[in-house]
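Minutes, project check-in
Item: structure for the 151-residue chain
Input as provided by the requester:
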Amino acid sequence: MKGRSLDSLAFSATVHCLTGCAIGEVLGFVIGTALGWGDWATIAVAVLLAFVFGYSLTLLPLVRAGVPLASALPLAFASDTLSIAVMEIVDNTVMLLVPGALDAGLDEILFWASLAFSLVVAGVAAFPVNRWLIARGKGHAVVHAYHGHAH
């Protein structure tokens, strides 16, 4: 954490996690909406993809730094699981609460505005979680030692 404030590291970790979550969420909601799936099937694929992409964004730099996949996987799980889970709970709750958001088509501003809003709210909710984890040497603090730089 050399020289960076706790808030700066927590913000960086939150943006990092939010990037993976957003890729998975957007892809999942686009797939579910385009295929006419119901709300719960769409949310399930979005959550699954959010975890896949969230973990992948942590795994990639670790593996590139020479950490074996068998060692990198537990590090990614330890550093990202709570943050991604908070983001997913908040993001999908917001999407369910915005009237018509999940019924809107891909060509409707309601769909995209609701999704963008839900991701921002999820990021705000995850920031204190990441801050708390990093302050205790957990979360993204765990992976910093392996790739020698902050996200």
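Outcome recorded: The mean pLDDT is 89.
No further action items on this chain.
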